[in-house]
Structure formats: structure tokens, C-alpha cells
Design brief:
By secondary structure, the protein is an alpha+beta fold. Bound molecules: glutathione.
Length: 381
């Protein structure tokens, strides 16, 4: 039996960027292969229930698709180089920034890719060769066009709408400035060593912002420390200097330069999560408890410094946020109290009063968890 793991994913893909960087860091024996049309549309769907990438196949032929499920599984088998800190604050921040990196940044990645036609030749080339390797160009191009149509179809729901383009770019430039300031001081988000938060942010930064020609030139090149972080993350562990300060900050501290970023996530992503929670709660009154929730609901209005941004609520995002909040609510009482005080200081206390039914993941979507189902429409606190 082979002892190697196999990841199916493209360099173009958001979540493959996250998972690939992580698996390399963990030194998982890995075959990193492209997804072809057959694996994407048929085999992967049969094994995991959804058409999505990346997919991971283990040597013992277990298949998985969700990036969070994937790292949790790998952490249980590969104990070296854990990516989730054990101290309460850093642990919560890692999980919260995972949710932010995975969910918040999707519109930015999609806008920068699909609003600029100069990105399409790379997409067509890479996706064409991956989907139908060795086939005639015109068939490859046709297959790519179908995938591109499907992906472009998601733009309005995630908030990429012409009237919001400027707003989102202004936000992006502000945030990239904050990230640049941070990476000028620190090699990774929590200090000298990568954590779950870094891998998640690689989703946006590797395949989309750092590799598509327009954003790589216009948005990333002006930020050299951010550029170096992307390149470092793409080549772990080789780019990690084990002898220097390769640790998260001591005493559960967080880098000062991370704080403005974190505050922004609480204000903005926190508002998005609260908006989704309100819609999911309202749905719980009449939605059949055993039926998967819709992938998208109504719009949520999110206040940014630059204006109000609207995108459709996705229950899946709430599921991810609930996992982060769990890192606080499951703490022993005295540490939970300390964490609550800290959240008040950094503007994140509203997260603790989000009252919504407990969710679990179902493929790319979410459903009420079995605990919620057993309690009728009872809410998690
Ligand atoms: N949240 C999932 C999402 C996986 C995902 O959305 N992958 C994208 C490509 S980067 C995809 O295949 N999307 C297909 C679709 O949404 O229909 C994860 O963490 O793995």
C-alpha cells in the first residue's frame, strides 16, 4: 500500500492554496496533482458528496474535501509542528482568523480575478491543461468556459456587484496596508511561526491575489513584506529558519501590529456573522430540522469604514464562526472570564452574545446540528 497522500487541486484554487501550504509545512508525504474533469465532476463527488476542490485522498483511501476537516484530520496523524496554539487567546484568534481568511476574503479574490480580463489567459491555460490534459485546445477552452461561467455566477451573491467594486477595492487597499505593516515586523501572523491563521489567509493570497497577473502587480507588488510572506508560506518548511525566533509570541501575547487587523475583523466580519445568525435563527422557526439549509439566504449589510457592503448570508460562514467561539465557551470558567475581558478590550464582545442554533457542516453547506434538532429550535449560546 502506498504511504503517500494525494491532494487534488489547482494552483488557481483558493482553498488548494490553503491546504497545499499546510500539508507541505507538516511534511506530509504528498503527491500534489491537478484535478481533472473526471475527478472533479464524478470521482470526487462520489467520494465526498460535492463538486469542489481541493480533495485529499489518504494512503488508506479516506477522501475528504473541506479544508477545516482536512487540517483537523492531519493534525491527529502528524503531531509535529502543530498549527493550533494551546493558549486560549492565540487559539481563539487562530480559529477566528481561519473563519475570516476562508469566508470574508472570497469577494476580494473573486473581484480581482473576474473583473480584469488580463487574468483569463492564465486561468484558461492552467484550468484547460488540468481538466482535459492532452486534449485539443478548443475542447479544453470549452470546458474552462463552462467552469468560468459557473464561478462568475457566484459573483453577485458574494457581493461582487458593479456598484460595490470601488468600495471593496478601497477596503482591500486599506487591509493590505495593515498586513504589510504587520509583516514588516513579524514573519507570520502570530509571530515567528505559521499558525492556522496564516494557512487560511493563503487561500486568498496565493492563487488569487499573489498569482493572478492584475492583483499580483497592482495590489501585492507594492507591498514587499506581504509578497515575501506569500512566497515564504508557499515554500514551507524550507523558508522557515528553525534556528531563529521560530515561535509564537510568549505568554499568549499577540503582535501589536495584528491588533488593528483583529479589531477590524470584529467590527466587520463580526457584523456579517451576526447578520447571518439572525437570518438562521428566523429560519429555525419553520425550516425542517433535518433538511440541509440553503447555501445562501438574504443579503446582510456590513458596515465598513468606507461604506456599507452587502453580500448574501451563508449559513456555512456561521458554522465556521461558531467553531471559533467554542474555543472560548469551552474554557474553564476563570480563563473564559479572562478571554471575555480581553474581547471587550479589543471590540469583540458582541461575538459572545450571538445567539443562533448550533450548525454542522454538510458538504459546502450547513444544517442544524443533531443537538439542535433534538432540542427542537433551541438556540446555542
Ligand atoms: N469551505 C470549503 C470550500 C471549498 C471550495 O469552495 N472550493 C472551491 C474552489 S477554491 C470550489 O471548488 N468551489 C466550487 C463551488 O463552490 O461550487 C473548504 O474549506 O474547503
Amino acid at each position: 500500500m502506498s504511504t503517500r497522500y494525494r491532494m487534488y487541486g489547482w494552483h488557481l484554487s483558493y482553498f488548494a492554496g490553503k491546504v497545499r501550504s499546510y500539508l507541505k509545512y507538516k511534511r506530509v508525504p504528498l503527491d500534489d496533482v491537478d484535478v481533472n474533469l473526471f475527478v472533479l465532476m464524478w470521482l470526487g463527488k462520489r467520494k465526498t458528496g460535492v463538486v469542489a476542490m481541493p480533495l485529499l485522498q489518504t494512503p488508506d483511501d479516506i477522501w475528504m474535501q473541506d479544508s477545516s476537516e482536512t487540517w483537523q484530520f492531519i493534525e491527529s496523524r502528524f503531531k509535529d509542528r502543530p498549527i493550533l496554539p494551546t493558549s486560549p487567546r492565540q487559539r481563539f484568534v487562530s480559529l477566528w482568523l481561519e473563519a475570516w481568511g476562508d469566508e470574508w476574503w472570497i469577494p476580494i479574490a473573486m473581484q480581482t480575478r473576474w473583473r480584469h480580463s488580463e487574468n483569463y489567459p492564465l486561468f484558461e491555460h492552467d484550468a484547460g491543461n488540468a481538466l482535459l490534459p492532452g486534449w485539443p485546445g478548443f475542447l479544453q477552452r470549452r470546458a474552462v468556459a463552462r467552469i468560468a461561467r459557473r464561478l462568475r455566477g457566484y459573483l453577485p451573491a458574494v457581493g461582487v456587484r458593479p456598484e460595490q467594486d470601488e468600495l471593496l477595492m478601497a477596503w482591500t487597499r486599506r487591509m493590505l496596508g495593515l498586513l504589510e505593516a504587520h509583516f514588516t515586523e513579524h514573519a507570520f501572523l502570530l509571530g515567528g511561526r505559521p499558525s492556522l491563521a496564516d494557512f487560511s489567509l493563503m487561500g486568498t493570497m496565493y492563487g488569487h491575489l499573489g498569482r493572478d497577473p492584475w492583483p499580483a502587480r497592482e495590489l501585492i507588488a507594492p507591498h514587499p513584506h506581504l509578497r515575501s510572506w506569500i512566497d515564504r508560506m508557499a515554500d514551507l518548511p524550507n523558508s522557515l529558519d528553525e534556528t531563529s525566533e521560530s515561535a509564537w509570541l510568549a505568554n499568549d501575547e499577540l503582535p501589536v501590529t495584528l491588533m488593528p487587523i483583529l479589531r477590524t475583523t470584529f467590527e466587520e466580519f463580526g457584523a456579517q456573522v451576526a447578520g447571518i445568525a439572525a437570518q438562521v435563527s428566523a429560519l429555525a422557526a419553520h425550516w425542517p430540522m433535518d433538511k440541509r439549509l440553503p447555501r445562501i439566504l438574504e443579503d446582510v449589510a456590513i458596515p465598513l469604514q468606507e461604506g456599507t457592503f452587502r453580500r448574501a448570508a451563508m449559513p456555512y460562514t456561521l458554522w465556521m464562526a461558531q467553531r471559533a467561539v467554542d474555543a472560548i465557551t469551552t474554557l474553564p470558567e476563570s480563563s473564559a472570564l479572562d478571554m471575555r475581558r480581553w474581547l471587550v478590550d479589543v471590540g469583540g464582545e458582541a461575538l459572545l452574545s450571538i445567539d443562533a442554533p448550533r450548525l454542522e457542516r454538510d458538504g459546502l453547506q450547513a444544517r442544524f446540528s443533531s443537538a439542535t434538532r433534538n432540542r427542537g429550535t433551541a438556540h446555542a449560546t
